Amino acid sequence: MRGQWKKLLCAAAAALIVPGVQAQNTIKIGIITDKVGVAKPYAEPVTDGAIFAANEINAKGGVLGKKIELQIEDDQGKPDVSATMARKLVEDGAVFILSLSLTPATQQAQSVTLETKTPHLTPSNSGDTLTTQINNPYFWQTGPLGSTQIATLLSYARARNYKQVALVGDNSDLGQLLAKFFRMGLEKAGIQVVSEELIPRGATTAEPQMQKVRAAKPQALVSAGVLTAENVLMLKAYRQMGLKMPILASYNFSVPVYMSVAQGLIDGVTFVDAYDPDKPAVKQFVAGFKKAMGKEPYNLNGYGYDGMYLVADAIRRAGSTDKEKIREAMQATKGLHGVMGSKEAAYGFPEGKRTGFDPNGMVVRVYEGDKQGRVLHVGLK
Amino acid sequence: MQDFLELAVGAAASGCIYGLLALAYLVMIRPTGIINFAVGEWAMVGAFAGFLLLTQWHWPYALGMAAMLVFMLLVGWATERVAVRPLLEKAAPVLAPILALLGMLVVFRESISLLFGPDPHQVPYPFGYGRLEFGPLAGSYQSFFMIGVSLVVFGGAWYFFERTVAGKCFEAVALNRRAAALMGINLARVTALSFAAGGAIAGLAGILIGPNISAHYLMGVPLAIQGFTALVIGGVGRVAGALLGGLLLAFAEQLTVRYAPVPPGYAQGVPLVLLMIFLIVRPTGLLRARA
Amino acid sequence: MKRAVLWVGGAVVLAAAAFFMGDYHNDVYRKLLLWIALALSYNFIFGIAGQVTFSHFAFYGIGAYGIVILLFYAALPWPLAILGAIALCVVLALAVAIPATRLEGFYLALATMAFAQLFIVVLNEGGAVTGGTGGLASYRLPRILGLDFSGRTYTVVIVLLVLATAAILRRIDNSWFGRACRAVRDNPEAAAAMGIDVARTKVIAFTVASVLAGIAGMAYAFVDNTVNPPIFGLENAFLLLFMVIVGGTGRHAGAVVGTVLLYLLPFVLSPLIGQHHALVFGVLMVAAILLQPRGLIGLYDRVARR
Asked: Which of A49, A256, B39, B103 allows an S-S link to A301, with CB 3.0 to 4.6 Å?
């Protein structure tokens, strides 16, 4: 038994003798992503966007005259591995860490970035509690918050004057968070949630849940679920039951996979998105991404892209790779326009807040046939 | 009441899928005692075969399904050959094949994930997406199709085990491996056939439920757990038990969601609590194996 | 005497290792040590007492959540909180074990699987008490007796915990109770005929091992100062089963070997082969079982015998 320990000790010692020295002419940025676990469908495209952005920045000369060096670690979708990877990145000299995995993984990695005082950004997670569960001044979130999503949906629906809605979610961690904040938003607007249902991961049907929805006679159905297959189950049961009420969906429905896997089911569904294809910055992004990566980008790539640009911008304004200076510069970010968000949206962290997505920056779009259609509404007007 | 009848068809359909998976477990457990948790991943492979043949290559449904079944027979046979036969030949401890199959579970899942990507894919409906009214009962075409196909499979399985000589061989092996070998039954062949059959049944379950739940790389494990639960409820001994267990599980799950006055999150817990109580009260399952 | 020297020496070497390693390696080391503690106690239920259970990780979680809730939400002083968490593990272990004596094989596996799933549902729906799906994170390891135990010192604490767990399990294994467990595992009727109370043996084995898992959980709670439902999910129970069987069922050294290998393998493979590492992991697992069905510890035995 001790033989094994001796071997581990030797390996550890060897790892120390060959230190993680970074070349003096690069700036190391760490990425924690999920390559094999449950967050892979979302983490993979976001990571691709971030890599594309880093390559684009390097092609234009890098940051502060140095090239960005990316170190990408896989947390396998496990929150406690995420924390371990955060430690590895810090030890290997990363001056900024991007968390592109699931919400609890980002949360657990924060315990490390708080302890090591390392700047930490999630450009894609939308769970509202990430900036509130612990007070970590080194952590920022620029994904579209659940509270922003419901506020945008409600501002679009204001003219309809809904009084009673159904809320359908799933049992994933983000799905439950979105459901919670959607409910809060609905109640604040004086709308009664007459039916709240949950489709568990791995369910074979959503008919019992939709029967309950039907029995409660809501005027609209708000979808807070983030699991694609389970959302499709909901759409199928909706059609089976002959339900007609409008569906207002979270940003999860903005992912293009719905166009292929929910064919014939999705016409007329309205959803919040942070991607306006008519925006000039988006058109430029699409052209560049297609040329570099050989495939058409979509909204998830954009989150990673914007995240990397935010980080590069903060480091540039800090004028150095000192983590404290970067923290101050990041917190002072204001008025930065990216790919995501409506035409006027800008990233910023006013009044010491650490959530940076413009609350006015989401749009409401509708599915026309099986395609993602036009923008119906912008922001919180 | 109308809700219940409407739910009944859907629940019966889900129950049939759980039952098919339980049957897949059963045809492998009875002759060998090996629990193959990879049946969920086999169902996933069947669903992806459906996606490839039917959605991407546009084969006619019957041909596509037949091709999938043949493919799954091979997959089942190959799994046994690679992961189980060497262990049986080495007289390995009972748990070793179970673990090797768990390793195969990971191999299947990751292979599909790397080949097709993490996004869900569509498996087509053979009869389109419509609704059929059958007297007071109503359900989707697919639900009726699932029930119909499952009844045929269960009928066939029952006939095989109860009425044919080959089926009796299986039973003999299940009851006493050594005696069966002494009587001249080829153990290796029985094992290989049981795995091939298990693969085909699981693949069938996958292609039937695939249009509803979409083919994706994470669909296997929940199905494997549900199938195992159905098997144990029904009692590991009898074909009819697998179907009964599946139906009970599906009805318990769906009726709980629809009618139980508990908050939505807790509705997932109710079938688990029921299951635990059931196991304590009736530890051998509902239907006893024939003596 | 020689035994004691070996244990103390081992403790010193393992603890000292913490001070020669950087932050990242310390983190991996701490988490690895806790998995080893879990594997040793699981090996006892599964390998030595012969019960196929999937509830071990649930008890890890009960210990972790228990200590956090009692210490920070019930605001108990730390000695009471520790005792309270242990008591909670004992009560729940008995609640599971006593009815479970009626169950064998598949049925026991299924009942404990259902218990593990139910635990996650309770965590997710626990509202403010368990922090729901986000878990609990806004706490820190408190100062005990005025000393701050975080960082490298905490690694030493965990080393001592694992060694204590190993020592306790060795002691039990070598006692008549350990032999009774093996007798029950191999042939319950013969064991009963020899006067062993089969049900009581099973219950005690399950409870002791589950409580040890709970204690490891209490240590886990302060490794990242975060507890959340995904950490304690059912997939981990399967991985633990793998570790124990791949290492060598029924052998303490086997549990350690299996855990070290399977825990560290993804960390080693991931930088080398990127997103394919999980596939390679599966292939290696199948290969390991095919080559050494009785566990990799068999290789060590073969070498030792020469």
From this structure: A49
> In chain A, how many domains are there?
2
Whether the CB-CB separation of A58 and A68 falls below 8 Å is answered with yes
Cβ–Cβ of C238/B272 closer than 8 Å?
no
The answer to whether residues C50 and A45 touch, using CB atoms and an 8 Å cutoff, is: no
Q: B137 in helix, strand or coil? A: strand
Query: Are A248 and A186 members of one domain?
Result: yes
Q: Inform me whether the C-beta atom of residue A91 falls under 8 Å from chain C C-beta atoms.
A: yes
Q: Which two tokens stand for residue B160?
A: 């095989």
Q: Which of C12, C165, C224 should one mutate to test binding to chain A, selecting the residue with the greatest count of A CBs within 10 A? A: C224
C274 near A CB under 8 A: yes
So what's the pLDDT on residue C306?
60
Assign residue A164 a region (left: φ > 0; alpha: ψ between -120 and 50; beta: otherwise): beta
- pLDDT for B161-192, tens place per residue? 888 887 877 777 777 777 777 777 778 888 99
Q: Is B169 part of a structural domain of the chain?
A: yes
Whether A206 and A256 map to the same domain: the answer is: yes
Residues A176 and A134 in one domain: no
- Domain match, A228 and A170 both: yes
CA distance A87 to chain C (A): 5
Per-residue pLDDT of A179-203, as tens digits, reads: 999 999 999 999 999 999 999 998 9
Chains in contact with B via at least 3 Cβ–Cβ pairs below 8 Å: A, C
Of A279, A227, A168, the residue nearest A38 (C-alpha): A227
Contact B280 C102 (CB under 8 A): yes
Chain B closest-CA separation from residue A38 CA (Å): 8
Q: Do residue A173 and residue C21 have CB atoms under 8 angstroms apart?
A: no
Do A126 and A160 fall into the same domain?
no
B73 in a structural domain: yes
Residue A194 forms part of a structural domain: yes
Q: Is the pTM of this model over 0.80?
A: yes
pLDDT score of B268: 80
Put simply, the chain B residues between 257 and 276 with a CB less than 8 A from any chain C CB are 263, 265-266, 268-269, 272-273, 275-276
Residue C188: how many CB atoms within 10 A of its CB?
17
Shared domain for A257 and A155, answered yes or no, is yes
Domain holding B83, by residue range, is: 2-281
Sequential DSSP letters for A127-143? -GGGGTSS--TTEEE-S
**Residue C256 · residue C36 · CB < 8 Å:** yes
Reported ipTM: 0.90
C235 chain-B contacts, CB cut-off 8 A: 221
Collect all residues of chain C within an 8 Å Cβ-Cβ radius of residue A13: 20
Task: Determine whether the interchain pair A196/B222 forms a contact, defined as Cβ–Cβ distance below 8 Å.
Answer: no
Q: Judge whether A12 lies within some domain.
A: no
A3 within some domain: no
Whether residues A189 and A247 share a domain: the answer is: yes
Helix residue ranges, H only, B80-94: 85-89
Q: Does A183 touch chain C (CB under 8 A)?
A: no
Question: Are A139 and A157 in a shared domain?
Answer: no
**Tens digit of pLDDT for each residue in A170-185?**
988 889 889 999 999 9
